[in-house]
Amino acid sequence: MEKRIGVAARKFMSLPTLLASASLLAGAGVADAGSLEDSIRAALHSNPEIGVVKADRRAVDQELRLARSQYLPSVDLRAATGPEFTNSVGTRRRTTRPPDGDASTTLFRSEAQLRLSQMLFDGFAVDSEVERQRARVDSSAYRVHEAAEFIGLDAIEAHLDILRNEEILALNERNVQQHESILLQVRDLEQSGRGDIADVRQAEARLSRAQDNQVIARGNLFDAIATYQRVVGERPSDLGHGEPPVAAVPPSPEDAAGAASVNSPTVMIAAADVDVAAAELRAARSGFYPHLDLELGSTAGENLDGVKGGNVDASALLVMRYNIFRGGGDMALEREAFHRVNEARAQLQNARRIAEEDARLSYNALETARSRTVAIEAKAQAQRRTRDAYASQFEIGQRDLLDVLDAENELFLDRVSLVTSQYTEEFAVYRVLAVVGDLLNTFDVARPRENVTIYRGEGDVQTPEAIERKSEELIAPDSEPRPLRGEEAGEPPADAMDISPFTGKSDAVDSNLPVVPEEAPKAAVESETSAASTVAGGAATYTSFDEFWANVAGSAAETEDGPVVADDAVATARAGDVAVEPASSEVVASAEDSSGEPPADYGSFDSFFASVFGTSDAVSAGGERVVVTTTSSQPVPLTAGVDVEEPVEPAYQLQGGAGKPARYDSFDSFISSVFGSSSN
Fold this sequence. Notes:
The structure is a single chain. Strands 1-2-3-4 form a 4-stranded antiparallel sheet, with no helix packed on it. Strands 7-8-9 form a 3-stranded antiparallel sheet, with no helix packed on it. By secondary structure, it is of the alpha+beta class. The chain folds into 3 domains: 43-79 and 106-460, Up-down Bundle (Outer membrane efflux proteins (OEP)); 506-594, no CATH class; 605-675, no CATH class. 50% of the residues lie in helices and 10% in strands. The chain is built from 17 helices and 9 strands. The protein has helices at residues 15-26, 36-46, 48-68, 89-92, 125-191, 197-232, 253-263, 265-284, 329-395, 401-435, 439-443, 464-470, 545-553, 568-574, 586-594, 605-613, 667-675, and strands spanning 74-86, 105-121, 291-302, 310-321, 558-559, 562-563, 627-629, 653-655, 661-662.
């Protein structure tokens, strides 16, 4: 048999509460006055938070009517009258005008126009707007459901809080009576000579503290009544109490989380908002279609456009309007709406997770309260036996008065904790039911009629399967618009290489590849080691560009510690365009053999530059404009004002002003010829 939870032992109830219970029992055959159901119904009827969502639902209903009105024709009547000044070709060429007469005329104009316009096709814009408003009606209805569930829960909490504070006040009244009894007993002992005045003063102090606690408890009860009036809208009267619906609670936290994930009204709101966003996406695509309208019109006028007499015309037109170009606005609108759909779907997924968390937290609170109730009840029973034993021992002089007073106070605190734990356990039951959306169904309390979704079809009902489907991100190729960027917009392709330099240690890469040196301060170079030498397992440091070049490009470059061995990568660089493998490979070796010369070694960058661009008897360009030409596939950097000519030799050449090939034996002479006179 289920243990009754939520109410402390009724023997501690105050007299007004007992009288109220007796009056409730006398009213058989009708609903209990002041029951939980009555408090919920009163709150749903009068709470302004319910009024807010109900009014919003009614407003959205009218927005749906407004959307549907676009299916019907629009009839407009226009009437106008008044003087009109006209100076036009017609007035200047009128037959009644004298040779030197006024070219303008002023007539009293009157006209009336009747126009009917019927939309025939608008790219499904009206259909999408109607569907959007229907989804908003659904969403607002679920908001009424959500508000009703949680306002009902607030009413239950306020109702139970009054009952809890009434019982705590009754416990305080009983505690005061116990301390008054102890004080009388101690005074009798003091008067008979078996006690002293200190015990009397101690008992009086404890009585004063008990009376203070009673005042606090009464104030807490008044606070609970004020909260009840705010939530329910009326003063509590003869509040009753019933058994909590424990059987309606899911059997486990995961079952509660699963039910909340698809049945919570908050989740239903988010699911309906996904439908709203989907309808907005369909409406955004209406701009890609032509619009077709039927327009009927008739106009009757007098003295129109400076011509005396009557005028009547009528027309029946089939009008097509189609936007050719809008600056890409239609595509941007579609993309925005598409991402709004994914935003709504993500919000639905987030709402489901929050609902699952609330369900688990509520269920954990229920189980914790159940365990605490059992433990506190056992402790209160043990403390009551201890108090009784101390009282008996005090009567025969085996216990001090302080022990008895402490035991009495401890028992009082345990009883207050037990009452609080029992009501906490009961409220946790209702909280779980509210989170999963079944609180009002459990009490058989009808929700406001604005909760009904009367415009949605069977396929639009938020079933668990539909909610699962709407929680997924929309990535279908036929629904996703073109990407925001492409390769033509500057976005690198997916297989683009990362060309950022590697700055790791030399033992982390192929020994045949050059190592990018790590940055290091000059002070880190040891005196006994050359600045261009490479420390085993570390990175080389250089004090000048010449030392770096000697280490990279010249085996004959001498340092204090001896020659630096040339890297295979240097031979690879010398081999030209065919050097796609290390210098030790057959391809590079054959390229070197075909050259007819052994690979050259360069002790400095200037020697390398002179070997490429000329000999020591190079002709200086003398500061004249030069042209850089090449047969290589690599791009040639050009300075401003340099003209491009056809290559004359299969090598880099610098043409002087006289048409002679300029030669440079150093990089400095090249720079001087291009940018100005040489500077020593």
